[in-house]
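**Entry details**
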Amino acid sequence: MNSTKIIDAKGLACPMPIVRTKKAMDELAPGEILEVHATDKGSKNDLTAWAGSTGHELLKSEEEAGVFKFWIKKGE
């Protein structure tokens, strides 16, 4: 999946993956895709809930070798 921007939140504990995601999302235009890499197990629930509550769309998430990857499309 093509991402407009990728942020590395590996090694960061809650709430930092969300803080970094929000800051990066503010820099994108509607429809662009942010890819987030995190190792905090809580980030799966946190980013899913955050995307839904802020009008963005979680397109895909996966785990690979202990790294959670998320693709979030910026809403209008």
Q: What stands out?
A: The mean pLDDT is 95. The beta strands are 5-9, 33-38, 57-64, 67-73.
